[in-house]
Structure formats: structure tokens, C-alpha cells
Design brief:
Layout (H helix, E strand, L loop, with lengths): L19 H9 L13 H6 L6 H13 L6 H8 L6 H5 L6 H14 L6 H10 L2 H16 L2 H7 L7 H7 L24 E5 L2 H6 L1 H13 L3 E3 L9 H5 L3 H15 L6 E3 L2 H7 L2 H4 L1 H4 L6 E3 H7 L13 E5 L3 H5 L6 H6 L5 E5 L13 H4 L1 H18 L3 E3 L3 H10 L8 E3 L1 H12 L1
Parallel strand pairs: 1-2, 1-3, 3-4, 5-6, 5-7, 7-8
Helix pairs in contact: 1-3, 1-6, 3-6, 12-24
């Protein structure tokens, strides 16, 4: 079992005023600048700069809010460099809600005229239109076949520029298939039902995982409902200082998923971490949605019944990478390991502790490629030393980033979602 989480005094959005400046002070005043968070902050560990630490960023946000500091490029860079891993929040003895605070700080920068990067705006726009993203991915595959990626590098496009990163190392599936639920084998027409949040990136880049998810859930006796009106969770907008756009998405998703109480399952831990704070974003519309959200791994592990189909053996070694959102935001971070441990003959290896954030952080691995690669380097080195057959990653952004850094390896592991291994194991037992 996962260790119990210590109870901390909570500061909640529903108890605060609607004034963002008052909210900043309410949260930031809890920080005593003790520095216990510093060893856990990936960007501070990377360069040792105070402005790249949680307490440094809190001081900058306080200065912005009080009018003591201008909305300068330097401050914007410090705030935007934060990966949002929330390792600091997880260890804070005062329970400072750093995640909410960094979002408020970025929103203040946007309010005072600091624009989002072009790449960030484009990626947020694409997240709202998965069909357009699929078309662009097909064009990207065609461009690589024609050698345009190599030509771009020869012409001087830096590989750590976001466009260079997209052209050269962003993993692209060979084909993009629509989510096609299976024939509901063994799933009741009534009774046990769940709802699936597809996520805009997963739907565009990794639809196979969504299909595997529906198949597994149906095999263990659940009917899977996929609301057609759902939209992006809003994470990219929220963490880029556009809370209004994120609230709009939250309200639309809450309407799409209704109020009937069915569990809402996600395959991406980043989406789940955003959904569970919908009551902060849009409390009137979403107060009852957040408590219904769970990762698909945790849900299946919880509901693995005695009559569940037998899993077949899968020979090989799998290494598990738990994303920051799974470790620091969602409950039950070890559910993935316990679920995969049910597969006969599968050798499970976990990454060493203390490696921290991989740097994917939404679009950071594209827009801040150098920083993201530096953060992921020790993780990739440990993967290389273990030489697994599979790398199980329950978050699509982390999978894309780590998979991209390992592309071209002669013996690189297959990067996949843990649910895909469960689906393959079930297929072996048929």
C-alpha cells in the first residue's frame, strides 16, 4: 500500500476572495523562506540560482503583486522556467500552494502585457483542435520521409529551437487512428460504467493507448463512455497565465461529463492533475467533478476482481517512470507498479529516487529544449544502464520527451503506457 499522506492545514480557493492579489498574499504569506524545498526543485538543482527556486519565485510574485517589481523579461523567464513539478509543494511543512501561486504569477505577467511565446500560443491553439494536430502530424511524417528535417538542420535551424525539435526528434506515430472502443466483451449494458477523458495530446499522438484502455476496462466488466463534447483539460492555458481560457475549458468539460457520479478516468497524469483542481478553476460548475477523477492504472488496480480474466505472461524487463504529476499531485503513486506486478514473467525495475523532473512539463520540452534535456539527462542515463525492453510512462508528455531523447539508440526500449502492457498480457491469455 502507498504510505499515508500527512494531514496538513489546507488553504482552499473556496475560502479565499475572488481578488487574485489578495489570493497571492494569502498563499505567499505562508512561506517562511525556510529553504526546505530547495533540494527538491529541479531548476534550482540545475543551476543554483535563487530566482530559479520556489522561494525565489514566490518573492518575485510577491514583488509583482505589490507593484515593487516591473513585469520584466528577467522575471518572466524565472517564472516561465518553472516546470510545475510541485516537488516543493509536496515537501512544504507550511503547505504553501505553490502550484496555484505560480499560475497566479504568470497570469499577472500576462495582465501587465507580457505575451506568451509564439510556440506556446501555437501549441495551446493546437490543443483545442486535435483534428488539425493529426493533419500536421501527417505532414510532419511526410516531411521527414522527404528529408526536410535534415535540410533544416543543414540550413542552420538549431535542434534545440522548438521548430527544430519538432522537425527532428518529436516522436510521431506511424499512423493516427481514431479511438475505436471494442465490442464491449463482458461489459454490462447497465451497472458498472466509467467515463474516459481522452486528453487532446493523447487523442492526437497516442490513440492506441486510449483504445487499449477501453479494451482492458471492458474485459474487467466496465462499459466505457467517451463524451463527445469534452475538450482539452486546459493545463496549457492555465500554466501559461491564461486562467480565463482554462476556466472556459473546465466549464465545458464539466457539462460534458455531467453529474451522474460515474468515475472519470484518464491515461495522462498531467490531465488528471488538472482535472482534480477544477473546483478551484470553476467552483460553480465543477465542484463535484474533481472527486470523480482517477488514473486508469489506479482504478483498474483497485477494481481487479476475482473474476477478472487471467493475465498471460510477458517476458522482458520493464522500467517504470512515474511523472511528477503522479508522484506529487495524484494519490496512490505506486498503483502502476502493483498493476504491472500482476503480469507473469515480467521483470519490473523502477528508476532510482531523486532523479526528479524529466523536463517535459507540458510544452517545455519543445519551448525550453535545452533546460528540458538537461533535466532528463540523468534519467536517460539510468535507463541506458538498465537496458529495459519497455519503459512504462503514464503521461504522454514525459513519454514523448524521453522517447525523443532515446530516438536513434540501437537498443532503445519501447516507450509505452502501462495499460498497453496489461492489454498485451490479456491478449496472451486469450
Amino acid at each position: 500500500m502507498d504510505p499515508p499522506t500527512a494531514t496538513k492545514p489546507q488553504v482552499t480557493a473556496r475560502k479565499s476572495s475572488g481578488n487574485p492579489f489578495a489570493r497571492v498574499r494569502e498563499i505567499a504569506d505562508l512561506c517562511v523562506k525556510c529553504g526546505l524545498c530547495l533540494p527538491h526543485c529541479p531548476t534550482y538543482r540545475l543551476n543554483g540560482i535563487e530566482g530559479e527556486s520556489p522561494r525565489g519565485r514566490i518573492s518575485l510574485i510577491q514583488g509583482l503583486t505589490d507593484g515593487a517589481l516591473p513585469a520584466s523579461d528577467r522575471i518572466a523567464e524565472h517564472l516561465d522556467n518553472c516546470t510545475g513539478c510541485l516537488s516543493c509543494q509536496a515537501v512544504c511543512p507550511a503547505n504553501v500552494l505553490y502550484g496555484e501561486l505560480i499560475d497566479l504569477g504568470r497570469a499577472e505577467l500576462r495582465r501587465r502585457g507580457r505575451k506568451r511565446r509564439v510556440a506556446a500560443r501555437m501549441l495551446a491553439m493546437l490543443s483545442r483542435s486535435p483534428p488539425v494536430t493529426v493533419i500536421l502530424l501527417r505532414l510532419l511524417r511526410a516531411a521527414r520521409r522527404l528529408g526536410i528535417d535534415r535540410l533544416a538542420l543543414r540550413l542552420g535551424l538549431a535542434p534545440d529551437h522548438w521548430l527544430g525539435r519538432v522537425l527532428t526528434s518529436l516522436p510521431v506515430p506511424e499512423r493516427n487512428a481514431a479511438l475505436r472502443p471494442s465490442a464491449n466483451r463482458g461489459a454490462p449494458a447497465e451497472g458498472r460504467q466509467v467515463m474516459l477523458f481522452t486528453g487532446c495530446v493523447s487523442r492526437s499522438v497516442d490513440p492506441a493507448t486510449l483504445t487499449d484502455t477501453t479494451r482492458v476496462l471492458e474485459r474487467i466488466g466496465y462499459r466505457v463512455n467517451v463524451p463527445s463534447a469534452q475538450v482539452c483539460c486546459g493545463a496549457l492555458d492555465l500554466h501559461d497565465g491564461e486562467p480565463g481560457k482554462a476556466r472556459t475549458n473546465a466549464a465545458r468539460n464539466c457539462a460534458a461529463f455531467g453529474t451522474d457520479g460515474q468515475p472519470i478516468l484518464t491515461v495522462a497524469s498531467g490531465c488528471a492533475a488538472t482535472l482534480v483542481q477544477y473546483d478551484r478553476l470553476s467552483p460553480r460548475d465543477c465542484e463535484r467533478l474533481s472527486c470523480r477523477v482517477a488514473s486508469v492504472e489506479a482504478f483498474i488496480e483497485d477494481h481487479w476482481a476475482a473474476d477478472t480474466p487471467v493475465l498471460g505472461p510477458l517476458a522482458g524487463r520493464v522500467m517504470i517512470f512515474e511523472p511528477c504529476t503522479a508522484r506529487n499531485v495524484l494519490p496512490r503513486p505506486s498503483a502502476t507498479r502493483r498493476l504491472l506486478a500482476r503480469i507473469p514473467a515480467l521483470d519490473i525495475v523502477e528508476l532510482g529516487t531523486g532523479l526528479g523532473c524529466c523536463g517535459a512539463a507540458g510544452h517545455h520540452f519543445l519551448t525550453r529544449a535545452s533546460q528540458a534535456d538537461a533535466l532528463a539527462a540523468p534519467i536517460v542515463q539510468e535507463i541506458a544502464g538498465c537496458a529495459p525492453d519497455f519503459l512504462a510512462v503514464p503521461n504522454v508528455g514525459c513519454a514523448l520527451h524521453i522517447g525523443g531523447m532515446m530516438s536513434g539508440w540501437p537498443d532503445s526500449p519501447e516507450v509505452l503506457h502501462p495499460i498497453t502492457l496489461i492489454a498485451r498480457s490479456l491478449a496472451e491469455s486469450d
